[in-house]
Amino acid sequence: MINSSVLSQIKTIVDNGKFLTSQEDKISYSYDGTPLLEFFPDAIVKPTTTEQLSRLFKLANKERFNIVPRGSGTGLSGGSIPVENCIVVDMSGWNKILEIDQENLTAWVEPGVITEQLHKEVEKLGLFYPPDPGSMSICTIGGNVAENSGGLRGLKYGVTKNYIMGLEVVLPSGEIIQCGGKTMKDVAGYNLKDLFIGSEGTLGIFTKILLKLIPKPQTSKTMLAFFNSPIDAGKTVSAIIANKIIPATVEFLDNVTIRSVEEYAKIGLPTDIASLLLLEVDGHPNVVEDEAAKVVECCKANNSIEVRTAKTQEEALKLKAARRAALSALARAKPTTILEDITVPRSEIAVMLQKIDAISKKYNILIGTFGHAGDGNLHPTCLTDERNKEEISRVEKAYAEIFEEAVKLGGTITGEHGTGLAKRKFLHLVTGQTSIDVMRSIKKAIDPNGILNPGKVFTIS
Asked: In this structure, are strands 106-109 and 97-101 parallel, antiparallel, or unpaired?
């Protein structure tokens, strides 16, 4: 634990009311969106200036306590779980949109800006920020950058890293750097910006983020395709891409998820089908009509039993909102919901779906699978009860096999949730030990005392 003298020094750095040590506060900050993981911090600090954050780092190096950064706490890999001898630095109050530059199509924001709020503000100006994580109504831009978050529109538009042009970062030493900027080309020195993106809060804390914006698509068309086999749905995804069509959205839901979503949202989904695809194309009206027709052809050619097209924008938004509610809907079934995250090449989606089904049957556990099928990112979600230790043991073995099978297919153990605490023991399956050693070397160079979010992604030694 951090001793009382050091805690007093920490308290003097931040404004009154920004230093929390009550038991209730410690409980609130002891967990994030990841099940089965929790740990109490020694204190919670809410700095209001970059200078305060810098002073906290300098004190941490001097007194050897740890700092764990946190946004909204929606992470799903244990990235913001407190560790021993630590304070949590809550950045959610840094929530200002500092500038929207319509001439350069950029926006400077603070890390605590809620992703959906940014969407609304830029869309008022006819602009578009594509990354749309499932938790976009509550997650922060800073957390999105730290995890390199994806979303429903990832197939066509890419993920968070594709829209980051610059960062202001406080390093573990307390020094402050800015990397990147509004220029469209810049090869001066190493690309430090991309080093920090996806580093899961282990290399620095963001204080300003420069985002790339694009023109808002003119129109869109949203469809639902129903299948009697998840394999046919998987083959449809491959067929759409093979036909050189890049929809904005291609989302997959299996029967377990469909039934949960329909019970939760009541939008008229058939509950006796094996799977469905939520598809959306966007862009110029003529292109949208042409691509939508081709998508329907691909669905029918791969045994879709029905394709429905949203008749209004309101109906389309309702369908997408229902998909975003998949996790919440599944979570109502059992006391514990373990949402996982694997990615395979798009051509292997059908095979991976078969393997998930076989593994769930092998270990006699209930898994609902949904995800961003268009970019090969699936979320096999186990509905269980953490009080049943024997079942949890089976769940852990099942996920270990799922990760191994994903890697065998040329995939990875995480596409958008991060490694964090939850998956660090599986990282070597994807990267190999030499790559982990290189990561450790980078961490050591930037954070020699290992004070910032230690133990996340990999152990320091």
From this structure: antiparallel
